[in-house]
Design a protein that fits this description.
Elements: E1 3-7, E2 10-13, H1 15-19, E3 34-42, H2 58-69, E4 74-76, H3 79-85, H4 94-102, E5 110-114, E6 133-137, E7 150-154, H5 156-159, H6 162-174, E8 178-181, H7 185-193, E9 199-205, E10 229-236, E11 239-245
Parallel strand pairs: 3-8, 3-9, 4-5, 4-8, 5-6, 6-7
Antiparallel strand pairs: 1-2, 1-10, 9-11, 10-11
């Protein structure tokens, strides 16, 4: 598999050449991780088709999705995304683990779960896998069932207000310098509202979905427009793989 380099123009490149060696944590702020978000969207702005992301983006998007997971210390997903996508252990193959280890990271990233309500899908495979390490931010009354995963629990009063407090906790308590957010829309919008997103990786699938499927953002309108700087644009089978920076 190869991607065509459209912006800046250049020779075709393998996914590994594009999505490894990114060193995302090198420019992390002093008090929180460097935050990148990854989404797939149809041309008409839908982030799901038939309620899932799997039908969008094809093989290129799936490959980029898994390689981006090798580039960070931790992966964050909202509870709705965890439940719908049935998350399991974050890094699924020995080859991907080897990429992480070769770049100086643990074989498995920390999985981050945040819930104000305590409604957490503990039945998903993530919590049943002994390779999983989870940082759970949930109310103190949340009952964490026994499972194979290593779960480190934090109460909201420990970390302060908003998602910024969680990110500070991840940096201070878990040494997280780079964090990948995989959605969903409400969580992504909340990160944007607190100006906590440093980069966006977006697959623009050459597809129209229609209907009332989820969009990339939801809920409140941002207080102001957030400008993005295009870092690169790749192409494969009509799909565009875009990398944007906020800074």
């Amino acid at each position: 598999m190869e991607f065509t380099r459209a912006v800046p123009p250049g020779p075709a490149a393998s996914p590994e050449a594009c999505y490894t060696g990114l060193d995302l944590g090198a420019t992390a702020p002093a008090d929180r991780p460097y935050v990148v978000c990854n989404f797939v969207s149809s041309v008409d702005g839908r982030a799901t088709a038939q309620g899932r992301t799997a039908l969008l983006g094809g093989e290129g998007d799936r490959t980029a999705f898994h390689l981006l997971r090798t580039q960070v210390d931790a992966v964050l997903a909202g509870t709705g995304t965890l439940r719908v996508e049935r998350y399991g252990v974050i890094i699924r193959t020995a080859e991907l683990e080897q990429i992480r280890v070769a770049e100086g990271r643990a074989a498995q990233p920390l999985a981050v779960v945040i819930s104000r309500s305590g409604d957490i899908p503990f039945d998903i495979p993530l919590f049943a896998d002994p390779r999983s390490r989870v940082a759970l931010y949930a109310p103190p009354e949340t009952v964490v069932p026994a499972g194979a995963a290593e779960v480190n629990r934090h109460a909201p009063e420990e970390v302060g207000e908003g998602l910024g407090g969680v990110l500070r906790s991840l940096r201070q308590r878990h040494g997280v310098r780079s964090l990948l957010c995989e959605g969903g829309p409400a969580l992504f919008t909340s990160l944007l509202a607190e100006d906590l997103v440093d980069e966006l990786f977006l697959t623009l699938a050459a597809t129209l979905v229609g209907g009332d499927e989820l969009q990339m953002t939801s809920g409140r309108t941002l207080p102001e427009l957030l400008a993005l700087r295009l870092v690169w644009a790749l192409e494969r089978e009509g799909n565009l793989f875009l990398r944007y920076s906020r800074r």
